[in-house]
Specification:
The chain is an alpha/beta fold. It contains 8 helices and 9 strands. Strand 2, helix 1 and strand 3 form a beta-alpha-beta unit.
């Protein structure tokens, strides 16, 4: 791994992927993304791994994208190429041979919420809060989470979360099937571990085929959405409204949007 902001460890047939930027509530930056993509690539080459637990150090699983890097490139690359490169690297997680179980807590926001949605299972601690605040920042969801959320909860709830950026609590997430279990924070790690051990103890080929079957039902829509989101996000970054939002914030004034 080229960074310690994401760690990947192995305990027998279980891999443990950890968000490790606790001082920033695990807000994802370019360095953290690079570590995540490297971990996914490594896992693709580890057929001995039977289940992945994706957890976090600190108070939150992830507070989303580091807002200081929204729309900012740290290298000489166009926005579409940068977005698509990251999308393709993360979308490889859909093709892993083993399931990913997310152990969520604290804040689960934005692109990080989307990434957890693309995983196979989500359990969360009491008090966990979920948000998709991208529109408030003038950008779009672009990690396939909108498509997955639509599959789970339908059009109305999805657009409520996307367009208002409101907070969804753990109990509402459970009612909608976004998470399968809500436990105390003290029980979170043990619950994720119990799930992973159950999966790892089942016939490996059968688990792989179950994941394949679910992928045939669900993943084509997610992959199509990811591709379209790369285009629409690039258009957003180039829009007059996005430039106006940034200018208004810098000048501490109310923005005047023109819808283009």
């Amino acid at each position: 791994m080229s960074t310690d902001l994401i760690t990947l460890e192995y305990d027998g047939p279980i891999a443990i992927l950890t968000n490790n930027r606790p001082d920033k509530h695990n807000a994802a930056n370019d360095e953290m993304d690079t570590g995540l993509f490297e971990a996914i690539a490594e896992l693709k080459g580890r057929p001995d791994v039977r289940c992945v637990i994706w957890r976090a150090n600190g108070k939150s699983w992830s507070s989303g994208r580091d807002v200081s890097q929204l729309g900012v490139r740290t290298e000489d690359i166009d926005n579409l190429s940068f977005i698509e490169r990251g999308q393709q690297a993360f979308a490889a997680s859909l093709d892993l041979h083993c399931p990913i179980v997310c152990a969520l807590k604290g804040w689960v926001i934005g692109g990080s919420f989307e990434r957890s949605l693309v995983a196979d299972l989500r359990v969360c601690a009491e008090g966990t809060r979920f948000m998709l605040p991208e529109v408030k920042h003038g950008v779009l969801t672009d990690t396939g989470g909108m498509a997955r959320l639509f599959q789970m909860v339908g059009h109305g709830v999805t657009m409520d979360l996307v367009l208002t950026g409101r907070v969804m609590d753990a109990e509402e997430a459970l009612r909608h099937g976004i998470v399968s279990r809500v436990v105390s924070e003290d029980e979170l790690e043990a619950t994720a571990r119990e799930i992973a051990e159950t999966i790892a103890g089942a016939p490996a080929f059968t688990v792989k085929m179950a994941r394949r079957n679910m992928g045939l039902l669900a993943n084509a829509v997610v992959k199509d959405s990811i591709r379209e989101e790369g285009t629409t996000q690039t258009l957003v970054f180039a829009s007059e409204d996005y430039a106006e939002l940034k200018a208004a914030r810098e000048e501490d004034r109310r923005p005047s949007y023109r819808g283009r």
